[in-house]
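Morning. Coffee machine broken again, so started the prediction first thing and wrote up yesterday's gels while waiting. Chain of 806 residues, entered below exactly as on the submission form.
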Amino acid sequence: MTHPNPSFGRDTLDLATAVDQAARAIPPVWPLASSVAVNPFLGQTDEDLATVAARLARVAGTAVTMPRSWYQERIANGDLIDQDLLDALAIAPTAPRPETLAALIAALQASTPEISALPTVADLAAEASGIDWPGVIAERFGAWAAGYLDEGQALWAAPTGRGAYAAWRAVATHDLTPEILGLSGFATHVSEAPEAAADAMASVVQGLGLPAEAAQTYFHQMLMTLGGWAQYARYRLWQAELGGGTDATITDFLAIRLIWEAALFDRYEHQIAARWRSVVATHALPVTPTLDHVIDSILQEASERAAQRKLAETLAVPGIAKIDSRPLLQAAFCIDVRSEVFRRALESINPAIQTLGFAGFFGLTAAHRRFASDVSELRLPVLLNPGLTSSSGGPDDADADQSARFKARAKRAWGRFKLAAVSSFAFVEATGPLYISKLVIDALGLRGTPVPNDPAPRPDPALDLGARTTAAETVLRAMSLTTNFARLVVLAGHGANVVNNPHASGLHCGACGGYSGEVNARLLAALLNDAEVRKGLGPQGIDIPANTLFVAGLHDTTTDAITLYAEDCLSAAHATDLNDAKTWFAAAGKIARSERALRLPHATGEGSLVKRSRDWAEVRPEWALAGCKAFIAAPRRRTAGKSLEGRAFLHDYDWKDDKGFGVLELILTAPVVVASWISLQYYGSTVAPAVFGGGNKLLHNVVGGIGVVEGNGGVLRAGLPWQSVHDGERFVHDPLRLSVCIEAPREAMTEILKRHPGVCALFDNRWLHLFALDDKGRMAWRYTGDLEWSQMNEAEPATALPEMAA
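Came back before lunch.
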């Protein structure tokens, strides 16, 4: 099979560019052990929502907004008003779009048009033959990829040392399943394919008659059909490039998928050739949104403006006056939206308690080795590289370390014996009855996961005094904590204590790479308790009182219990302070659980939340970050006492103490971007669950130790499980793009956006909305794109912040 292809010819440079563009249109997915939220639209953020809707409709057959009935309901209940629709309509593209509000409302009454992707060769072959070739490809590719990518789950490991394309060919040339199903000669077809993936792709492009103009969206579609497998391959490329290298797995996967297309085209060419030429012609057209795509994007914008209107009303309520007296307790929490509920509860216990919000890795990018482990865990945002290495325990723990390793090896050996192909049968017969007590204990939820309690972590190798002092100063300034220290300062990382949950790491701290945050908190507490470091901070204008003690803690977001690691820094002088803190934390936990129980299905009060964390059949132990809709960087007094319903990321920030706006730049380029990934993962898993969601937890099987499939094979499911965004009757997450509210001069933010075009694109294309707060904490200015701002509520002029110093 050969077809002339004047657009591509044998221009490998053009082909390589198209392949690279398609690969970068795929979002990465992290393995289950360290899963973090990822923006599923990561490869499309340089386009607006309507254009992305057109692109993903072509390559994945999915919508990127809710059905129109969802917006109708919001209008009916008064959440979405005419002014919201008018404001959204005013900023829509000039064409195509409804000309009037009446035209928009008329379009809203129509049902959402059905969306279907362009057919692949496999789709056309399935229509022609009656054989589900897309399903066959998903099953065979998944069976191979699960072994190839396995990270230690499989008892019999697949051979390693080859690239993905070569490894697949070695298996596919001996796989008779396709031939049994009707694709005769498939093994021979694979064996005769070029040995290099790039040459194989060039050959397929020629054979399918694919012009250069059609390649990018067609290649994108090919990778989308592989689901989470392609996303995991993209993760490998992401990690490699973060370390200055590269990885060819995702392009090898594309070559494999294209070979399937070529083989099916050879088999069914006479039946599908005409239709295929039409598909190729459509792929060659520019991606252009239709009127329906624009209408849906307007409705989405209007719903976000409605939420912003309510947020503005909340922030317009006068805040709490600044308290200059020494706090009874200072507690720093992650900016995670779950912390907002606990912080508000804690502050309600005693107004002299001060809480702070800061990214949960506490500014320390640690590659950490846990006790009795040689695995390096990256406890840092995935956007960054490690800045230090650390380990739990020291020379004094050597004997305990060795004992723990022996126990771990014995446990692994026992586990392999239980699961082995032959011994598993004898094991069940001989020892099954001994597991009755364990089954009863687990079924009744009598045992939970132990709280992390390794020996105190330490930098390994140790940092010199200059590095320690610089790190301490940088973190304290970023936290806006440089004066008025309390006697006790708690640094609370967070994690989730759940059982039988493959997605448990997704409930941990995203800023800590999908791990719990106690390691970073303990490292920082030790750093700030260091007498030499404190002495070095003095000349920098940061005087920490001698009677201030920093203590690390861990906030369990499932039970709202706080664990304090006071043994890291024993201080008899602070015994009363610690006891008071424990009492306040316990009271705040009860308040927070009571509030959260109102949202959780079948919760019978705050006491039931602890039991949910231990129930191995519970698919909704907590809501995690469902409902997130705002990011606020401002002094806490702007939001204290105001209920943000556990839906806002809260970052303490005082621009008056930020000389040069280095902290502001850090906030906009790191925490805001991470928060956007979280927000958009929840968004994507809600509006397009079939493509960007993790599927049904009840059907999940862990595969390769990296992800889950529904049933016994097929496509790897990435994204949030359905139970994370839906309670069985309704959505619990409103898919709204994040509103970022920052109290800082607009000029400073504009200059930062100029220096970071990738971040600027998120706001210009409204994947994020940016607002400047005035000196009373009100939403005063809206970023409108292209480095321009518009004033809000012009009937009542906002009080502008002072001009940025030159």
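DSSP finds 29 helices and 17 strands in the chain. Going to sketch it on the whiteboard this afternoon.
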